[in-house]
Amino acid sequence: MATSTRQSLKDLQERLAARLADAKKAGAEASWLAVEAGGERYLLPLVHAGEIFPLPVIQAVPHTHPWFAGVAALRGGLVGVVSLAGLLTGAAAPSAPRQEAKLVALNGALGVNAALWVDRMVGLRNAGMFVGVTPRRDGDPPVCSQRLTDTRGDVWQELNLQALVEWPEFLSVVA
Predict the structure, then answer these.
(1) Are 11 and 93 within one domain?
(2) CATH number of the domain that 105 lies in?
């Protein structure tokens, strides 16, 4: 019985080691966090995305643009909450959030205390999951990079979060 238990533990350790190696490999290949906002698909660079939060209570701030949802307390700090769809399309922040809505905090290295309100998290994506690339369209906000088409034919807009935090529209929440 003791030999059987040792063998089972050894098998378990080997399976766990293999799964951890696979997870590290998949994490190294993942380049973007895929989200949906306002019916559009977006790719946020993992290097600039921060922690993901369930939608907290958001306190509205008067005299701001409609896309500025307000402020929220995340991990003891106060952050500005921006509706990603609203910012990029000019629409107002959602008044009744979907149950799947999340906040994606921007990486602290970007130097902005803000989070993006997205309707749904889709998962991680890497370059190997896309079959086509097209340049950004005329009229797209300057934070939009290339468009990528996945194997299902869905088009994803890559966002440059470094450009986002330097974009005067993003930095000026006062209406």
Answers:
(1) no
(2) 2.40.50.180
Task: Print pLDDT tens along the chain (175 aa).
Answer: 456 666 666 776 677 666 655 555 554 456 999 999 988 899 999 999 989 998 888 998 899 888 999 999 998 889 999 999 989 887 666 655 677 889 999 988 888 899 999 999 998 998 888 888 888 778 788 888 889 889 899 999 999 999 999 998 888 877 7
Total of domains in the chain: 2
pTM of the model as a whole: 0.76
Q: What is the DSSP annotation of 22-37? A: HHHHHHHH--EEEEEE
